[in-house]
Amino acid sequence: MCVRANSLNFRELSVLRGTYPLPVKDDVVMGADGSGEIAALGDGVTRVRAGDRVAAAMFPRWIDGPFTWEYAPQIGGSLDGMMNEFVVLSEEAVVGIPEYLSFSEAATLPCAAVTAWNALTGARSLHAGDTVLTLGSGGVSLFALQFARLFGARVIATTSTNEKAERLRALGAHDVINYKETPDWHVAVRELTGGRGVDQVIETSGATLEQSLKAAAPEGLINFIGRLAGATSLDASVLYNSIATVRVVAAGSRAHFIAMNRAIAVAHLRPVIDRVFTFGEIPDAFRYYEAVQPFGKVVIQHD
Fold it and tell me: How many angstroms separate the most distant Cα atoms in the chain?
């Protein structure tokens, strides 16, 4: 595969810092996200043809069904990643990308978008009229906002600035809470939902898990996406009293990726990109991603 673009996720910083929870090979080539075109085929390959526009699934062995440890090898972790000019992949690992997306846009999909899709659809059906709470403006949260709107769900978002709040509303958030101005944002969520709480939460840090539980409706679902360093421990009584479910979401399968692509192609959804760097500026891209809280994805474009 000739790689045309990559994008960054928090997992890349976690790999560099040595805090990534899954195995990482020595001297790993970085990057879970990458898109490009098939440059050449091995013997017996039938799923793709030379010239096809594709992206790589982050867990290349996870084709469908529930996650098991046999599917744990992941690109940019225990397997070499996508930050290279050419990569060799199994035909089972690649997924066709929507024709209308650029390579830079498609490179944002494999980790953050598939994670958001799995969160909202992998455990239970999301229905029109449900309420989804998204936390912050990172890649997973923004994709979850866009996907929830595709399903006709109401979206309540939290963010740290009024400027970001306006951008979240422009993307379709019905209500936005500035968590710096309203530290007890779970109370505000309850008020916005008439005391009921939300059906699903996109919990992206772990540090706010207790507030997410307090914001959830009975039988609500907390999609636990990631855990930041220093995240607080959970008071078991908060979990018990919430009558909610906490589900850890580890990206998604190839089947999730394909289903998501069908949905975004019909809706002509476009990923939110914060900034684009060139392939020669990869160190600068990492520094920017680490120093700034980007609104959307940071992309590395190869040409």
Answer: 60
Looking at 228, 248, 268, the residue that finishes a domain is: 248
pLDDT in tens, 58-70: 999 999 999 999 9
Hunting for tokens 């500035």 — which residue is that? 178
The Cα–Cα gap between 287 and 37 comes to: 28
- 265-300 as b/e: b if 16+ CB within 10 A: eeeebebbbbeebebeebeebbebbeeeebbbbbbb
CA distance linking residue 250 with residue 58, whole number of Å: 10
| pLDDT tens per residue across span 136-194 | 999 999 999 999 999 999 999 999 999 999 999 999 999 999 999 999 999 999 999 99
Number of domains in the chain: 2
Name every residue whose Cβ is closer than 8 Å to that of residue 189 and which is 6 or more positions away in sequence.
133, 156, 177, 197, 198, 215
Q: Which of the listed residues 248, 265, 285 is the one where a domain comes to its end?
A: 248
Interatomic CA distance for residues 267 and 51, integer angstroms? 25
Same domain, 85 and 123: no
CA distance 90 to 43: 11
Residues 130 and 10 in one domain: no
